[in-house]
Hints:
- The chain has a 5-stranded mixed beta sheet, with no helix packed on it. It has a 3-stranded antiparallel beta sheet with strand order 1-3-8, with no helix packed on it. Strands 5-6 form a two-stranded antiparallel sheet.
- By secondary structure, it is an alpha+beta fold.
- The chain has helices at about 15-30, 35-40, 50-70, and strands at about 85-90, 95, 100-105, 110-115, 120-125, 130, 135-140, 150-155, 160-170, 175-185.
- It has 3 helices and 10 strands.
- It is elongated, with a radius of gyration of 33 Å.
Amino acid sequence: MILLPGSEGRRDPERAAAAQRQRERFARDVGDEAGLAWAHEPRRGPRKFTIGTFVVLVLFAGLGALPLIFYDGDGSLLDADCGRPAVEASPDRLQAGENFAWQAAGPEAGPYVIAIDAAEVTVDAGGTARVSGGRVLAGPTGLPGCRSAQAVTVAPEGKGTHEVAVFRRSGDRWERSAVALLRVS
């Protein structure tokens, strides 16, 4: 009869001694010196909770877990900023055709147009924004709560550095207010 670790026979001292003798005989029969030496080693008891373990747990809680628990961020790319326009894109390095997230912030009064690789923005009488050489990501729009919702879009196919820009209406023109760089490889 072979007794495996964790089987019911290990709880009975007589069966445990029989299993020990069987392991010794088997190790001797096959010439396993390491197994024969192991058969004579005393069994270790369960590991104890040590002071070192306690110190590691305290360090983990203090340096790792507590800052995460008390972080009051909302998972956005950009904090609301009613003072000046801003834009953020993430990740700032990606492959062509991959998705990236962007978010704009600024004074609530707009309107704003967010575009990628655009040097100039025009808005026709119907309210449709157009750019030359790039594409419109959003707009014309306002920024309720001083920032836009986080949005995801596909990166340009062309490799190199691209600009995600916020344009704000100033009189009868659209002026570039903020830029975030996006590196595509």
